[in-house]
Amino acid sequence: MTASTRRTVLSLYMRVFRIARSWQAQSGVASDTETEKKYMLQEASTLFRQNQQLTDPESIKRCLEECEARIEIGLHYRNPYPRAMHLPPLGLATQKGRKLRAQQRLRKQAKPVYLQSHDDS
User: Fold this and answer.
1) Taking a C-beta distance cutoff of 8 angstroms, is the pair 45, 78 a contact?
2) Where is region (Disordered) located (predicted)?
3) Which of 45, 68, 74, 107 is packed most tightly, with the most Cβ within 10 A?
4) What's this model's pTM, rounded to 2 decimal places?
């Protein structure tokens, strides 16, 4: 990891913590605010530690894009949780003769950047 990439990663990590420190839940209820703050801190810690060993510049770039997208979406909608992906199972149109594997590949390609770190459950 280059020095500039490291600086960018640490900057994003600290930005998440600063946002969490000043976060107010949309409902205005103190318990909701605390729950959302804890979620943000836990999610950031988990994902940054999970991706700590990445060395491929392309993978690092994708993770940084995901982090930036999740920050911007969270600030815009005032909701720290990732937005749901509404795509029914086997709901993508395919060409004649394609099987389940093609459907799974299409679903993976249709997954938004801010949900790349979440598994298909």
Assistant:
1) no
2) 96-121
3) 74
4) 0.74
